[in-house]
Amino acid sequence: MLQNPLLDVWKREAVAYTGWLSIPSAWSAEVMAHAGYDALVIDLQHGLIDAAGMLGMLQAIATTPVPSLVRVPWNEPSALMRPLDAGAYGVLCPMISTRAECEAFVAACRYPPRGIRSFGPTRSLVSIGSDYVARAESFALTFAQIETVEGLANVEAIASVPGLTGLYVGPWDLSLGMGLPILGNLLDEDLLRACDTILETAFRHNLVAGIYTKSAEDGVRMASRGFRLVNIAIDSALLQQGAAAEILKARQFKER
Q: What's the sign of the alpha-carbon dihedral 244, 247, 253, 255?
């Protein structure tokens, strides 16, 4: 039966570098899966992907040993259960701002008696194994996204929710809520202090600390601070940057 490789990464206190998927394409997901990332995150909140697209992307990624996580659209039970039933190795839930919201999030991802998750792991029984239900907590990783000023203020209470895997910083929304002049600027001292507060709280509660960044440079710096689930790239930006770079080179050659 499959094992969740992310658990081994964190047991070694290593960093899992992830790629972010916003393009609704099984092919681009497969390409990213073969690129060497430690895990991939399928974004159903701000990406262009629906439930059917998610399934195809999960199947494409499964041609490799790379684990798939899903960022759900919102903290709603069916939105949380569907990716887990489809074979995702865990979920990121946006905009968790209170302990009650986190309790509802975790409960939707845990089978009774620990939670309210309904039985129906349709693909998980095939892709992960027939003993999926007995091992579901290993494949239902739960990351609460801390990305509001209220969530930052309540981070201690959020982190104390039983069954939570980790805290995940959303720097863009957090800096927006903090009124900072540049969104997602991981060199901003105020934003870094907020990130460190979340990081230190995760450590105290034996949780994995994660964060979204948009570059290897930012990602490595945040990993050096102690974050262990670190996004470093998004598919749409990689495509845009690569395409722009090639046409620029072509035009420069033409002008010589």
A: negative
Helices (H) and strands (E) in the chain, counts: 12, 8
Neighbours of 163 (CB within 10 A): 16
Burial 209-239 (b: 16+ CB within 10 A, else e): bbbbbbeeebbebbbeeebbbbbbbbbbebe
Q: Where are the domains of the chain?
A: 5-255
Helix (H, G, I), strand (E, B) or coil at 93: strand
Report how far Cα 41 is from the mean position of its chain's Cα atoms: 5
Q: Which CATH architecture describes the domain 5-255?
A: Alpha-Beta Barrel (3.20)
Q: Do 127 and 205 touch, CB atoms closer than 8 A?
A: no
Q: Which tokens is 201 given?
A: 């709280």
Going by the DSSP 8-state scheme, the letter that residue 137 receives in this structure is: G
Q: If residue 19 lies in a helix (H) or strand (E), which one and from where to where?
A: strand 16-21
CA distance 208 to 63: 27
Choose the catalytic residue: 31, 36, 46, 51: 46
pLDDT digits (tens, 9 = 90+) for 97-127: 999 999 999 999 999 999 999 999 999 999 9
Task: Give the span between the Cα atoms of 17 and 41, in whole angstroms.
Answer: 11
Model confidence pLDDT, tens digit, residues 123-164: 999 999 999 999 999 999 999 999 999 999 999 999 999 999
User: H-helix or E-strand containing 232?
Assistant: strand 229-234
DSSP code at position 135: G
Q: Assess whether 205 carries a catalytic annotation.
A: no
